Amino acid sequence: MRRIGKLGTLGAALACVAAMPALAADELPRNWQIGMQAAATPVRERIDALHNELLIIITLITLFVLCLLMFAMIRFNARRHPVPSQTTHNPVLELIWTAAPVLILLAIAIPSFKLMYYMDRTPKPDMTLKVTGHQWYWSYQYPDQGNLSFDSNMLPDDQAAAQNRPRMLSVDNPVVVPVGAVVRVLVTSTDVIHSWFMPALGVQEYAVIGRTNYAWMQINRLGTFHGECNQICGNNHPFMPIEIRAVSKEDFAKWVDTAKKKFAHNDQATPAVRMADRAAP
Ligand SMILES: [Cu+2]
């Protein structure tokens, strides 16, 4: 009975997903997954590469220390080695165990710094997205699309369920960006410190009052990506998710047209820096 109920729910869910092609590529956690979310930007791909490199180094170090411990326990225990050696110094050995960790740290530091500089510098942005954190929702501005601006609030549980959207990760007005475009992201806040965190995109930027931080993203595939505020910012901190839809250039242009009409009343919002202004000499 329960089994049939479950299958029925699954069937209904599948039918709903099939009816909404735009949401078919929703990138959500599934049971028994392991590892991190699949990378969707060049920054996240490089973060993954550094993570894998560190995993190899830490595994080798751990195995090496384990072998040394085992060797000392077996070879030099009181039974096999009743008269301990009086040696206290070995210059060659001391040089090695000082130099080897320095070299290992260098091998970690060089790719780590390279990645930091790569993340820091936006390569020729195609457009700008301004993100403002509020207690407790996000608002977005598109200065290159006629300063289009809107608020993005979490969908209440009943609405999310009705639309078959993930609970506490879906919003009423998601961010829409064209796939492949280099998007410069400006992040600020109006009240307390928030943090705009998109794991699949390798973006985590603090939203600080009176300060504009920036990051960049170039999403490499169509889909819906989810993130959250990850700086504890007060009572409703868990209820300000981020939802980003990467769509084709044509779909983005269509969305901009409809969004401009839908959010026409927001035209008076403070304009962010436009790319066109920056390009002027
Ligand atoms: Cu917050």
List the helices and strands and how they pair.
Layout: H1 2-19, H2 42-75, H3 91-120, E1 127-134, E2 137-142, E3 148-152, H4 157-162, E4 175-178, E5 183-189, E6 194-198, E7 203-207, E8 213-217, E9 223-229, E10 241-247, H5 249-262, H6 275-279
Parallel strand pairs: 1-5, 4-10
Antiparallel strand pairs: 1-2, 2-3, 5-8, 6-7, 6-9, 9-10
This protein binds copper (II) ion.
The site of copper (II) ion has 7 residues, from loops.
Short description:
This protein is of the alpha+beta class and 281 residues long. The chain is 38% helix and 21% strand. The protein starts with a helix and ends with a helix.
Using the coordinates shown, work out and report the CATH topology of the largest domain: Immunoglobulin-like
For this structure, what is the CATH homologous superfamily of the largest domain?
A: Cupredoxins -  blue copper proteins
The shape, in one word, is elongated
How would a crystallographer describe the biggest sheet?
5 strands, mixed
In total, the number of domains comes to 2
The chain-level mean pLDDT equals 85
How is the largest sheet built, in terms of strand order?
A: 3-2-1-5-8
Tell me the total number of β-strands.
Answer: 10
What Rg is obtained from the alpha carbons, in whole angstroms? 26 Å
Q: Per DSSP, what share of the residues sits in E-state strands of 2 or more residues?
A: 15-25%
**Main CATH class of the largest domain:** Mainly Beta
Architecture (CATH level 2) name of the largest domain: Sandwich
Unreliable stretches (pLDDT < 50, length at least 5) are 1-24, 269-281
Which ligands occur here?
A: copper (II) ion
Task: Give the helices and strands as they follow along the chain.
Answer: HHHEEEHEEEEEEEHH
Q: Helical stretch count? A: 6
Determine the structural class based on helices, strands and strand pairing. alpha+beta
Q: Report the end-to-end length measured between terminal Cα atoms.
A: 72 Å
Helix proportion range: 25-40%
